[in-house]
UniProtKB/TrEMBL annotation:
GO biological process entries: receptor-mediated virion attachment to host cell
This protein's GO CC annotations: cell outer membrane
InterPro entries, alphabetized: TPR-like_helical_dom_sf, TPR_rpt, Ycf3
Name of the protein this chain belongs to: Tetratricopeptide repeat protein
Classification via SUPFAM superfamilies: TPR-like
Species assigned in the record: Duncaniella freteri
Residues in TPR repeats: 164-197, 301-334, 335-368, 369-402, 588-621, 679-712
Record keywords: Repeat, TPR repeat
Region (Disordered), start-end ranges: 448-473
Amino acid sequence: MSMKPSSRNFISISWAQIANDERKSIPKVIMCLIFMPQNYEKTLKQIDVSCENCIFVVATRSHYIKIPIKMQRILRTVPFIIFQAIALLSSAQINTDQVMRIGANNLYFEDYVLSIQYFNQVIDVKPYLAKPYFLRSIAKLNLDDYLGAEKDATLAIERNPFIVDAWEVRGVARQNMGKNREAIQDYDQALSLLPDNRGLLYNKAMAQQDIKDLDGAAETYLTLLKRFPNFDGGYIGRARLRLEQKDTIAALSDIEKALEINSNSINGYLMRADIAINSDKNYASALEDMNHAIKLQPKYAGYFINRAYLKYMTDDFQGAFADYDYALQLEPHNTTALFNRGLLRAEVHDTNKAIADFSSVLALNDKDYKTLYNRSMLLAEIGDFDSALKDLNQVIDAFPDFAAAYFMRYDINRRKGDMTSAKVDYDKSLALAKTRVQISPLIPNADISADSIENNPDSNSKEELADNNSYSQEQVKRRFTTLTTIQDNSSPEQIFNNKSIKGKVQDRNIAIEMEPIFAISYYTSPTELKMSGDYIREVDDINSTRMLRFVLQVTNHEPSMTDEETAQNHFNSIKYYNSYIAGHEPRAIDYLGRAMDYMTLRDYEHAIADLDKAISLTPDFTLAYLIRANARYLNTKLSNNIGEQHAPKIQGIALPHAGQLRAAIADIDSVIRLSPSMPIAYYNKGVMLAGEGDHTSALQCFNKAIELKPDFGEAYYNRGYVFLSLGNKDAAFADLSRAGGLGIVPSYNLLKRMSSK
């Protein structure tokens, strides 16, 4: 390019060059147009147009490019169309930086779900950038979406392999998924770029220990502590390694060094307490260390549960009760605290309250066999033999070799007077007395019987105990009837080179269930992640006619009616439709309008009746079928709660639950026939089928919904839920990760629970 010497600078581009390389050159010219001054016509007249083969466009007040004379007329004809379109493009480019910054702000404030939505927007516009993938990987890591974090970190590395933190994030994600060898490779790659990084060395040592490369881990800890001799976490990590090597003295030495460096090292106190309990049953010393830990971290329920055990072992029953009560204030659904408090109440003969605690555990997990066993014992104690047998039968079904359960059932049947059954159980218990019991289903990963180690002389550690495949009858009985503690007080956590990688998770106590069906409603519950309802073409078509008294919306989280005024509005609307329909020729839209008022007021039977009339008048009324399907489906839930005698009717015949559901699915099939490209129809059908246990058909429906709408987050979540129900954890992880990235918040809670198992 040549520069024309003058008080104004000219940039000349050959017209032929643009013709030959249109894709590259024209955007350059267009980007200059955005700076055209308001008086562009006057400016164009001032441009030197002596060069017919050059184009001139003003870039700034002092820089412009030549334009052929014949192009001036075109520019004068449609300048604002061009300029406005270009302004939007330029604005979009600027906004990606702004959106990235907002996403990073949300990441800093630990609003990980919302930050992901912002990074998604940047990636949609500029998928070639590494940074948004990297930042999104951090958000997913903090939400325990390790699979998603691994994938995003990989995409960031592919775009820029010199982002050290991306290697680190991927390593941590892989380590949490048990891919320790791959994690070590990532840490080695990061260490090649930052050889003296403390966090990378620490995480690598933990990964080496996890794959039982104890010598390699020891060497890495040695390197770490030589370079960072005042790093208390390094000594704690090596202490854990030395305990695994059965070198308790060296482990204690490292713990003392860590506490000397940092008197606030929680893990130091916890590990020392564990050693005191397991080595010489020094409960008083352990209790002192647990007190230190609780002062440093007073909001963790597990510490109070374990301290309650220590107080129990030192005969401080009142203190133990107080700790269990406080643990349940922190985590009302903590089954370990509920179970232990129930056992303690049973021991002090507070039987009814003990039964209440055990019932609370079973409400959260009806397959908790230890709790069933203990509740059965207490129910028998108060004379409720039938309920006691019901609980005990479940225990025996799960553990058919458990002699004590048969003996208890013998005693209950004897007290009932059923001597025939009692004799069978008595003989069975004697026959099993010397056998061993397989009880692996009884031992969850998260907790362990508090006295199992001290009562098992052949075991040297919790891990060794948990690895055994069978137990003696006496050991099993103890495990069913003794206090439970939170396993491994001192759990190591990865540390990070980048302080923004915090590792905090969304840990809400919410019920795990499928996302509900989408409904047509007059109201929605907007959130930061979803500011408006979903889209169905038929809903938009009806809204455009303005023939209804309210605007239809699409949502799967319909808000509850909370004020009388809103309810009265819909009662008044029903009166309006009653009057209008009575005095005019019936129209399908009027029946649908009144049905929507009934739906809003949860009067499903009248809604179904009106929708029947709408469909009879207009047999291809897609939306009427969809709303009627929802009404019938919701009625199935009502009939479950209020009994079959109140089930809705079709042509005067009361339908049982199965009949209602079949009618709802038939309506959905009509929607699909009339509108085969509606993803919500397939989704709703999938929810209905999954709720009835037809997982195969439900998967087909969710597959189709996702095919029609690839960003259908609720469909990914529900498909992941179904995969999990079928035992396909890999597919479930992938779908839940995708759903989380699309803003379905419960995905992360479910991913966390899956990861902890």
